[in-house]
Structure formats: structure tokens, C-alpha cells
Write a structure and sequence with these properties.
mainly alpha; 69% helix; 166 residues
Length: 166
């Protein structure tokens, strides 16, 4: 995790990540954000007259953008409350109702990664993390194939290419 890196390790990782976030590339994600915004509006219009959980609405909006921009996957979890990708992503991040365990473990990790390791703590659900890692592995493989053919302009493709070139 870059937040815990220092010195040369941080510089190397920063040099890999920085070219991905150019203004041109960031402008390229605007249509995706706009499309997700339209989905949010459409979903909210369907909820007129009903009580709505704004935290859930905007968390889903952010999730949709991250999955689409970062992984190139359109999850469309607006209608499907039992969407397995969303459930596993939330579980892997501790957003599934088990937030206290996640927060305590994450804070210990931030303060002292070595203590976190020696206590055998894990702030991530292993099954959910493995599920998301498999999605990442599949996405990276697909993006490498697309990049080899010159077909992709997605963030993850640029990141994979940057890592491969270093």
C-alpha cells in the first residue's frame, strides 16, 4: 500500500502511478462518470415517493465508477441488491456491517504494520479478497491482451503497461 511506503520504494511506485493520472486520461473518464450519473438519476427517479438511503445510493454510484474506470467492468448493481461482485467488494473492504473489526485492524496496520503482522491480524475478509483478486487477475490478463492489440485505453491497461515497463 503506497500510503505506508517511504524512500526509494515510494519513488518507484509513484513514478509508475503518476503517468496514469494525466489531465488527458482523467478527462477520458468523464463519459463513464456521466453514464454512471445518469444511472443514479434513473434509479432515484424510480424511487420517487419511497424512502431512500442516500449513503447506499452514493456508495453504489462510487462503486459503479470504480469498477468501470478501474476494471472496465459494468457491474450494474442498481437493481440487483444481491450482486455478488458488489457484496464481495464490500466484504473485502469491511463495508458489509463488520466495520469495527475492519477499522481497528486497519488502524493497527497504519500505525505499525509489523505489529499487525505479528498479531496475525487481517482487516480483509480472505474469501472476498481472493474473489476480488481473481477479478483483478482476469482483468489484467484481458487488458494485457487488449494492450498487445492496441485496443484499450482503460486505466488498468495503462497501469499494467507501466508496471511491465519498469
Amino acid at each position: 500500500m503506497m500510503i505506508n511506503m517511504t524512500g526509494e520504494e515510494w519513488r518507484v511506485n509513484r513514478s509508475i502511478v503518476t503517468p496514469i493520472f494525466t489531465s488527458g486520461r482523467l478527462k477520458g473518464v468523464v463519459p463513464t462518470i456521466h453514464k454512471s450519473g445518469k444511472s443514479l438519476i434513473k434509479h432515484m427517479e424510480a424511487l420517487v415517493g419511497e424512502a431512500a438511503n442516500s449513503k447506499d445510493l452514493f456508495a453504489t454510484y462510487a462503486f459503479e465508477i470504480i469498477m468501470n474506470v478501474g476494471f472496465g467492468i459494468e457491474v450494474n448493481s442498481w437493481k440487483d441488491k444481491d450482486n455478488v461482485v458488489k457484496k464481495m467488494a464490500y466484504r473485502s473492504l469491511g463495508l458489509d456491517g463488520n466495520g469495527l473489526k475492519f477499522m481497528v485492524s486497519f488502524l493497527v496496520f497504519l500505525v505499525s504494520p509489523s505489529l499487525h503482522k505479528s498479531l496475525g491480524m487481517s482487516f480483509m475478509d480472505l474469501e472476498a479478497t481472493e474473489f476480488m483478486a481473481n477479478i483483478m487477475r482476469q482483468t489484467i490478463k484481458q487488458r494485457k491482451d487488449e494492450a498487445a492489440k492496441g485496443q484499450s485505453k482503460r486505466f488498468v491497461t495503462k497501469y499494467v503497461s507501466a508496471i511491465d515497463s519498469n
